[in-house]
């Protein structure tokens, strides 16, 4: 979840009459978690479905509503203008087909606002932009650009001075040498051409989605902005633009529209949408009995507009709230506006009788019997490693199931056996007193279409007198006393066990496991100084078979 | 101190009652115990203030090597005088006869003017009947005499001579009973042992502490009317993500968060209608080209919700209370607060009573039963629930609010494509977090270390 840093004093200025405590008490009820606080600074985690909360300006809008300072929908006022046009050439359609944008004029930008706009841009790129793949933003100093603009493609030897560079670089150089080029160059695919926004003087404005031109950089002296969003989907690009437009208008800018045309592109509408909802759905879902006016005022506190129309409530939703899909989302807006802290939890008596799963019940009986036999329960990860599963125990690693890109060396392969993990456990306890007797039940995995999961039991006993007879007695008693099952053991040779001291465990003619004295090379591998005996059986093929 | 006596102690007490002052040696004889047992018994009785051990030092005198030689053969000067008693003898002859005492013998006899020496002969002049020291030598003989008994013996002559008289320092222990011990009747106390003494440790065989917490939680859900369902840990992306309205380009579906199984795809993931309706919902709401091959990719489940949603899609109940409990996986760096594999509990309620206040009520009831009463709810976001909340519980030990279970009502975009028509409440969270609070652990890895030191010493009931 993204985290942003805010200042209480700036929030107070943005919200109006409000104390620091009111702000910190209210933030969680907007769905914002306070990560840490340090005097005036507060770090906040917000949900990626609310990109408008990526700036303090957006959070202030929300808090104004929740605290009842300003409620209802924030209407975007976009002055219609013919001064700004972007023409789109068909060549972009195969690479990054859509561009949209807006003009924001006469704003004041201080350092803090620039910082907020930059984190917003980063968060939008990462979240709804899907790391700039879906859509990406460029914010420019309008006064450095001469309209009309063209969104077109150029060759990779095209040159301009990009952001944070002193000299001209070619597109190829930008892709191979700059940080953003290396990070996002792959989004342009194999095409020999790249998308570019150029102005009427043939100056490069932006090379989306990689980098802006240096000349259009926004500073504290900038008064007028040009915002462009490019992307692979028109609606997604306009969604992103709506967030930026809303934040800029709230920051004091006046918006003007841009005429966009060519190659299936058109000017952004940033339109509000209407959604109607039954108050009965709201009350049923929340377990409340709210009157229609109360519902309407709650929706307004969530910065939406609503009116009553017959039995329905018709809600107006601003463009930047594209997280609202349908009526259930409005139910949540009512809940938030009403205040989660105002909900009184209730308990409705259960109409059902609870049941433990028979598998869990059987495993619990098995646990009790194993404990009665003097064994301690161990727990290991099902995601183990080549070292533990195969290398240390001389086991065959033909059909391993591994996970991709694990961040942990110890967790790369799904276990196909439990016993190796227990041997590893013994090796970590050689300083503890003996006898050491442990068991574990858990899932094991085998490669079938796609994967078979079975439940196994492994048992291990390590002490100076450990021998085959002891462990076979345990196996026999466990199955006989616990589950009235009789098994046989038949000699077998296995790389993990000592020759002549190892047997298959057989139930009704089927091999369900293996038992024996652990081979001395394995014991030496693990630096264990006492003999070890153990067994592993498939519970899915024995005590759990009929379940 | 209770009046408990070891057999050794009893034997010593009884012996001392008969013979009130004894040495360890006499006690050995009278009790037939070994010197070591006597030593230990005396020590125990002394600690219990029942025996007095009077320790003293004394010295004894005895003859040394030269003293003993003279005791047997006579003083060197006596032996010389005896040799010449019957007439003068040659110097060389006497030297041969007396050996190494020849020198001192000649010196003494000359000094006392008992002999005369010519060029090569020794001639007797006079022979005293008793030489100085002779009597004392006889009095000591082979004995060891306490020093105080030698007051009357003139040892001056013998002490002058090397290795004639030796002095030994001897430590003496005299053991007697204290007054309280004398009145003690140990024969009445039979077979009792020191029940207050330290004993060796034995180790209990037991369920794993984390399993205890899991069982406790399972039990609570069952008593609240929930039935347990099970499911696989390996799941297709379809059930883990797509069916839960998580778009295919969602960051949670990247390798760095989720464990994808290398090269493994499921052939059959769901029935054709389920696939069609789920994919339609994605295309319409998330506006992208839904790819069935993405949905086939097998993952280690990131939550137990995939088990729940599969169950609901198959059974479509009008009323139900079910829960699932088991391991889930996240591709994280292992640390004191993160594991790649941990346990999750998830409960759902389907039916007409499924509303937000009831959902909160069930949480309150659950937490009450695990001993947490101070809770509150905050709004949050999950891709598959709307509205969504999280519980914050107050931890007295840490003195702060911590986040536990997440909850919400399944979105229509989740339920509708799968033919689930009734509202579904869902909530869940990690069990290790609760167990950490219970066992006061600050490193979650301890649950899977199988460290016998911890497992053997951890309190079972907390």
Automatic annotation (TrEMBL), chain B:
GO CC annotation, single: cytoplasm
GO MF entries: ATP binding; metal ion binding; phenylalanine-tRNA ligase activity; tRNA binding
Query: Would the keyword S-adenosyl-L-methionine turn up in this protein's UniProt record?
Result: no
Query: The Aminoacyl-transfer RNA synthetases class-II family profile domain covers which part of the protein?
Result: 321-437
Instruction: List, alphabetically, the Pfam families matched.
Output: tRNA-synt_2d
Principal EC category: ligase
Question: Keywords, A to Z?
Answer: Aminoacyl-tRNA synthetase, ATP-binding, Cytoplasm, Ligase, Magnesium, Metal-binding, Nucleotide-binding, Protein biosynthesis
- Give the UniProt record's GO annotations in the biological process aspect: phenylalanyl-tRNA aminoacylation
Top-level taxonomic group: Archaea
The UniProt transmembrane annotation reads none
State whether keyword Transferase applies: no
Q: Indicate where this protein resides in the cell.
A: Cytoplasm
**Per the similarity annotation, which family is this?**
Belongs to the class-II aminoacyl-tRNA synthetase family. Phe-tRNA synthetase alpha subunit type 2 subfamily.
Give the protein name, as stated in the record: phenylalanine--tRNA ligase
> Species name for this entry?
uncultured marine thaumarchaeote KM3_70_D10
Its taxonomic placement starts with: Archaea, Nitrososphaerota, environmental samples
């Amino acid at each position: 979840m993204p985290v942003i840093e805010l200042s209480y004093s700036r929030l107070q200025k943005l919200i109006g009459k409000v104390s620091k405590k009111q702000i910190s008490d209210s933030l969680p009820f907007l769905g914002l978690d306070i990560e840490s606080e340090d005097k005036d600074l507060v770090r906040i985690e917000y949900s990626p479905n609310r990109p408008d909360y990526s700036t303090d300006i957006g959070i202030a809008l929300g808090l104004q509503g929740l605290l009842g300072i300003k409620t209802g929908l924030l209407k975007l006022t976009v002055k219609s203008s013919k001064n700004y046009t972007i023409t789109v050439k068909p060549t972009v359609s195969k690479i990054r087909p859509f561009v949209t944008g807006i003009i924001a004029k006469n704003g004041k930008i201080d350092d803090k606002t620039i910082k907020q706009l930059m984190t917003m841009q980063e968060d939008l790129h990462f979240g709804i932009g899907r790391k700039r793949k879906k859509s990406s933003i460029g914010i420019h100093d309008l006064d450095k650009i001469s309209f009309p603009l063209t969104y077109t493609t150029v060759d990779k030897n095209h040159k301009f001075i990009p952001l944070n560079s002193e000299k001209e670089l070619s597109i190829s150089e930008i892709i191979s040498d700059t940080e953003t080029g290396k990070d996002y160059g792959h989004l342009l695919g194999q095409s020999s051409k790249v998308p570019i926004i150029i102005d009427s003087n043939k100056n490069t404005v932006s090379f989306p989605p990689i980098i802006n031109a240096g000349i259009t950089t926004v500073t504290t002296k900038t008064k007028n902005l040009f915002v462009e969003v490019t992307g692979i989907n028109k609606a997604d690009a306009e969604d992103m633009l709506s967030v930026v437009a809303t934040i800029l208008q709230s920051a004091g800018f006046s918006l003007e529209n841009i005429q966009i045309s060519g190659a299936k592109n058109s000017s952004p509408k940033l339109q509000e949408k209407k959604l109607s909802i039954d108050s009965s759905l709201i009350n049923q879902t929340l377990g409340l009995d709210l009157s229609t006016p109360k519902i309407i005022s709650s929706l307004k506190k969530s910065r939406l507009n609503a009116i009553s129309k017959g039995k329905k409530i018709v809600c107006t939703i601003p463009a930047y709230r594209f997280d609202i899909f349908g009526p259930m989302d409005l139910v949540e807006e009512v809940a938030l506006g009403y205040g989660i802290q105002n909900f009184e939890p209730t308990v409705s008596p259960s109409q059902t009788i609870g049941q433990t799963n028979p598998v869990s019940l059987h495993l619990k009986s098995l646990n009790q019997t194993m404990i009665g036999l003097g064994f301690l329960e161990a727990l290991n990860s099902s995601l183990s490693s080549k070292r533990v599963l195969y290398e240390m125990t001389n086991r065959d690693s033909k059909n391993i199931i591994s996970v991709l890109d694990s961040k942990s060396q110890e967790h790369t392969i799904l276990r196909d056996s439990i016993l190796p993990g227990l041997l590893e456990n013994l090796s970590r306890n050689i300083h503890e007193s003996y006898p050491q007797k442990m068991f574990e039940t858990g899932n094991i995995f085998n490669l079938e279409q796609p994967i078979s999961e079975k439940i196994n039991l492994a048992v291990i006993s390590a002490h100076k007198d450990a021998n085959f007879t002891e462990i076979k007695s345990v196996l026999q008693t466990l199955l006989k006393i616990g589950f009235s099952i009789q098994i046989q053991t038949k000699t077998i040779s296995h790389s993990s066990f000592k020759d002549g001291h190892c047997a298959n465990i057989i139930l009704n003619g089927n091999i369900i496991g293996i038992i024996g004295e652990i081979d001395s090379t394995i014991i030496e591998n693990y630096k264990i100084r006492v003999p070890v005996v153990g067994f592993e059986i498939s519970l899915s093929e024995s005590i759990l078979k009929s379940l | 101190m209770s009046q408990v006596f070891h057999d050794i102690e009893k034997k010593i007490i009884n012996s001392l009652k008969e013979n009130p002052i004894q040495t360890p040696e006499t006690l050995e004889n009278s009790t037939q115990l070994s010197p070591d047992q006597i030593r230990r018994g005396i020590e125990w009785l002394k600690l219990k203030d029942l025996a007095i051990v009077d320790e003293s030092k004394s010295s004894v005198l005895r003859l040394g090597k030269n003293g003993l030689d003279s005791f047997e053969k006579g003083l060197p000067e006596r032996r010389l005088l005896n040799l010449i008693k019957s007439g003068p003898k040659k110097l060389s002859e006497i030297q041969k006869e007396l050996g190494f005492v020849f020198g001192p013998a000649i010196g003494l006899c000359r000094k006392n003017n008992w002999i005369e020496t010519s060029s090569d002969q020794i001639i007797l002049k006079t022979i005293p009947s008793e030489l100085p020291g002779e009597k004392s030598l006889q009095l000591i003989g082979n004995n060891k005499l306490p020093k105080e008994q030698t007051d009357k013996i003139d040892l001056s002559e013998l002490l002058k001579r090397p290795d004639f008289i030796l002095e030994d320092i001897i430590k003496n222990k005299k053991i007697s009973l204290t007054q309280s011990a004398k009145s003690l009747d140990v024969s009445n106390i039979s077979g009792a042992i020191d029940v207050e003494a330290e004993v060796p440790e034995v180790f209990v065989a037991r369920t794993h502490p984390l399993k205890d917490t899991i069982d406790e939680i399972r039990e609570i859900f069952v008593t609240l009317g929930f039935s347990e369902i099970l499911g696989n840990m390996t799941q297709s992306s379809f059930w883990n993500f797509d069916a839960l309205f998580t778009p295919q380009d969602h960051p949670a579906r990247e390798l760095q968060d989720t464990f994808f199984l290398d090269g493994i795809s499921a052939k059959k993931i769901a029935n054709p209608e389920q696939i069609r309706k789920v994919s339609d919902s994605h295309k319409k709401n998330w506006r992208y080209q839904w790819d069935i091959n993405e949905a086939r990719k097998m993952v280690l489940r990131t939550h137990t919700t995939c088990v729940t949603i599969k169950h609901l899609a198959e059974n479509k109940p009008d009323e139900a209370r079910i829960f699932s409990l088991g391991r889930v996986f996240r591709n994280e760096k292992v640390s004191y607060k993160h594991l790649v594999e941990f346990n999750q509990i998830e409960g759902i309620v389907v039916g007409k009573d499924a509303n937000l206040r009831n959902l909160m009520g069930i949480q309150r009831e659950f937490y009450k039963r695990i001993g947490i009463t101070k809770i509150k709810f905050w709004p949050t976001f999950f891709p598959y629930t709307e509205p969504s909340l999280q519980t914050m519980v107050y931890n007295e030990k840490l003195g702060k609010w911590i986040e536990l279970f997440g909850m919400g009502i399944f979105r229509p975009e989740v339920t509708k494509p799968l033919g689930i028509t009734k509202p579904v409440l869902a909530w869940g969270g990690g069990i290790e977090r609760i167990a950490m609070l219970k066992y006061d652990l600050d490193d979650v890895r301890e649950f899977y270390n199988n460290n016998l030191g911890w497992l053997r010493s951890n309190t079972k009931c907390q």
